[in-house]
Amino acid sequence: MTSTTTGHAGNGDWLVGNPTGAQLASALWIGSVGLLILGLQPVLLGALYTEGHVSGDELALVATAEMIAIAIGSAVVAMLLSARNMRWKSAILLLLLALANVWTAYAASAGTLIATRALAGLAEGGLVAVATELIARSRRAERIGGYFVTMQTLAQCALALLLALYVIPAAGSAGGFIVLAVVCVVSLAVAFTVPGDYADLPKEENLANVLTVPSMTALLSVFCYFMFFGAVWAFLEPLGAQYGIDGRTVGLIVSASLAVQVLGAMTATVFEARIDYRAAIATIGVVALVCSLVLASGPGLTTFWMAALVMGFILLFIVPYQIRLAITADETRTAVLLVPAAQLFGLAIGPIAASLLIDGKDFRPVPEFAAASAVASVALLGLFVLVSRRRRAVA
């Protein structure tokens, strides 16, 4: 099987290198394994809480530690390590993640759980970089990014259903993490079908490429958008309870939202080339603002359902356009490698920042904070457009 190798010029759809369709699919699957936990956290961490392994505050720390570690892992692997020996790197990261999942299954304290999930997050972030490094080398990065989020969300849906209906009722949270470890071990077969080496992108001055006003505003816009979603999603159950919606119903809403996220990702994959990325990001930002204000207004059950489902749809619909935003900001494509880190930091920081505004049992400040985050995301997009136009005028 031919691999992308250093020094290859672009061929057809690729800026550099020429991976086969099977190699691309393998790399996207490896990255998807790294992000499985994002769709499974409500099921797995909810089981940990129900079984008494963690308190509510400890649960938040476990979730936040893992998301921040994923962001750090993806950034470190993408920015500081060469894209060589990707098969062995993928295999080592899969084994490390499998061990962390087994360790989690037998963790006896909250402190140990935080440590195991932080370790898991670093490995998961590295796996994400296996996919994003290859996506960055494509001339159709937005479309392949759409395929990536579709694949990972479909896998999350299937595993969430398996764990919720069969594994956790029979074997508890430990069984769920063992299943994740098994997925990692099985995926070792896929690891050895990714390209051996990725052809080089011009990354000699990677920090200089990222530390520019266009790149920083683009990444901050992504960060703020995911703060909006992270804040609301983390507190959806207590927010629903405040409006008289029981936890079982909110759980059903979360499951339905995962399915709608798949629809959003697939829709974006079809339409990404037909819609200008600026118009798409601005429109989705307005929709996010409206959803947040609706959730802050004390909605009834039907309105609550609709707002949550719309949020699920736009969550992944926006991803290909954020990839295009990052590529436009930095043509060397260094900034696009940090898009997953910006997204994950937003998901991690959003709940923490919103929690500082909660007054007792009143969770309305959470969607209000989310609304402000959505506005900030669009404002940063506007700043990016303004700076880009001025730079073109000067040039």
TrEMBL record:
Protein localization: Cell membrane
Membrane spanning residue stretches: 27-49, 61-83, 90-108, 114-135, 147-168, 174-195, 207-236, 248-267, 279-298, 304-323, 335-357, 369-387
Source domain of life: Bacteria
Record's keyword terms, sorted: Cell membrane, Membrane, Transmembrane, Transmembrane helix
Leader peptide range in chain numbering: none
Gene Ontology CC entries for this record: plasma membrane
Membrane topology: Multi-pass membrane protein
InterPro entries in the cross-refs: MFS, MFS_Efflux_Transporters, MFS_trans_sf
GO molecular function: transmembrane transporter activity
Listed Pfam families: MFS_1
PANTHER family membership: PURINE EFFLUX PUMP PBUE (PTHR43124:SF10)
Protein name as annotated: Putative MFS family arabinose efflux permease
Source organism of this protein record: Rhizobium loti (Mesorhizobium loti)
